[in-house]
């Protein structure tokens, strides 16, 4: 009976959202820059390829640990770029670093206009882009399994996301929603994670200490993190969250009792990022995010600063659509 209640709640949630958006079942999937997933990530199905990598080829630090130092994925200098010269000549580059190299060697002029995002909206209308993206996030997702009595809250948060989602008013996305870091700096006693999410950073001790008795009781966006090594995997345990952030875009909320476990495993020049969320107050079972596999990025291109987020529009929103 309990499973039936959960199933019916989920179906009711799905139908309500489908009706609220007023979109048809015919759509073209498109991606959004708001998602923490990067185009540089290897498809999840390719995760199996990591098991075939020879672990002996993985670089190591002086103390024998896998070397996590480096730039991971293509964020901050990555992404396809089109350069258009004043005479209309077009050049396409796989990354911003490739574009910079072409400018340096003189094959592309500084007068060329550059386009860093080339979305393929249905009917050429970005409104459809928002609707289609919303559909893919809901119906092709890996949702946390909430207890039946909490599905009504999920419905409400999703329908009213442009008022309830704190990222809409420039609050941090938080852990684990903001995904893996774009760069890791590693020492014998800690690791530093850098994010291109409003220039966020985290310093995580790996010297065997426990959670700080005060910080772990605070309620913050990033929580209190401590790391430890289990074999060749760095495990980061995070507690002390507030309940303002979400696990995902469709209203997937959590309590301030949430505990997050992040796992970083390097094999050769790939990095596997896995996350498990424990929040038994609202979840039936621990939730495992879709794993991410990122390539080591050899680019030396300058990181692009993420400009500050300033909220000017939340008071003027007139629809419930989000993109």
Question: How do the helices and strands line up, and which of them pair or pack?
Answer:
Layout: H1 2-21, E1 70-71, E2 81-84, E3 90-93, H2 96-105, E4 113-115, H3 126-139, H4 151-159, H5 161-164, E5 183-186, E6 190-194, E7 201-205, E8 224-230, E9 233-239, E10 246-248, E11 252-253, E12 259-267, E13 270-278, E14 287-288, E15 292-295
Antiparallel strand pairs: 1-5, 2-3, 2-4, 5-6, 6-7, 8-9, 9-12, 10-11, 12-13, 13-14, 13-15
Helix pairs in contact: 1-4
Model description:
The chain has helices spanning 2-21, 96-105, 126-139, 151-159, 161-164, and strands at 70-71, 81-84, 90-93, 113-115, 183-186, 190-194, 201-205, 224-230, 233-239, 246-248, 252-253, 259-267, 270-278, 287-288, 292-295. Strands 8, 9, 12, 13, 14 and 15 form a six-stranded antiparallel β-sheet that branches. Strands 1-5-6-7 form a four-stranded antiparallel β-sheet, with no helix packed on it. Strands 3-2-4 form a three-stranded antiparallel β-sheet. It has five helices and 15 strands. Helix 1 (2-21) packs parallel to helix 4 (151-159). 18% of the residues lie in helices and 22% in strands. The longest helix is centred in the N-terminal third of the chain and has 20 residues, at 2-21. The protein folds into two domains: 37-74 and 145-316, no CATH class; 81-115, no CATH class. Strand 2 (81-84) and strand 3 form a beta hairpin. It is of the alpha+beta class and 323 residues long. The radius of gyration is 21 Å and the shape is globular.
């Amino acid at each position: 009976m309990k499973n039936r209640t959960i199933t019916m709640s989920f179906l009711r949630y799905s139908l309500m959202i489908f009706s609220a958006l007023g979109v048809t079942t015919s759509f073209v999937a498109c991606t959004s820059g708001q998602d923490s997933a990067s185009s540089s990530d290897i498809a999840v199905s390719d995760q199996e390829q990591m098991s075939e990598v020879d672990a002996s080829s993985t670089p190591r630090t002086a103390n024998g640990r896998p070397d996590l130092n480096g730039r991971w994925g293509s964020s901050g200098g990555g992404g396809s770029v089109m350069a258009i010269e004043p005479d209309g000549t077009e050049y396409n580059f796989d990354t911003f670093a490739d574009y910079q190299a072409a400018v340096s060697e003189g094959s592309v002029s500084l007068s060329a206009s550059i386009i860093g995002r080339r979305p393929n909206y249905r009917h050429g209308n970005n409104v459809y882009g928002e609707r289609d993206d919303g559909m893919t996030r809901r119906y092709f997702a890996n949702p946390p399994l909430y207890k039946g009595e909490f599905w009504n809250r999920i419905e409400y948060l999703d329908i009213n996301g442009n008022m309830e989602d704190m990222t809409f008013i420039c609050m941090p996305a938080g852990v684990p929603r903001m995904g893996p870091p774009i760069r890791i700096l590693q020492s014998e006693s800690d690791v530093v994670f850098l994010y291109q999410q409003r220039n966020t950073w985290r310093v995580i001790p790996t010297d065997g200490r426990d959670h700080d008795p005060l910080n772990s009781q605070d309620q913050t966006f990033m929580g209190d993190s401590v790391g430890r090594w289990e074999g060749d995997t760095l495990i980061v345990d995070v507690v002390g969250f507030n309940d303002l952030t979400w696990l995902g875009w469709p209203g997937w909320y959590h309590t301030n009792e949430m505990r997050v476990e992040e796992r970083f495993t390097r094999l050769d020049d790939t990095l596997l990022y896995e996350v498990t969320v424990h929040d038994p107050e609202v979840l039936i079972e621990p939730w495992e995010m879709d794993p991410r596999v990122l390539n080591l990025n050899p680019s030396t291109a300058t990181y692009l600063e993420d400009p500050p987020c300033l909220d000017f529009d939340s008071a003027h929103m007139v629809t419930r659509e989000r993109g």
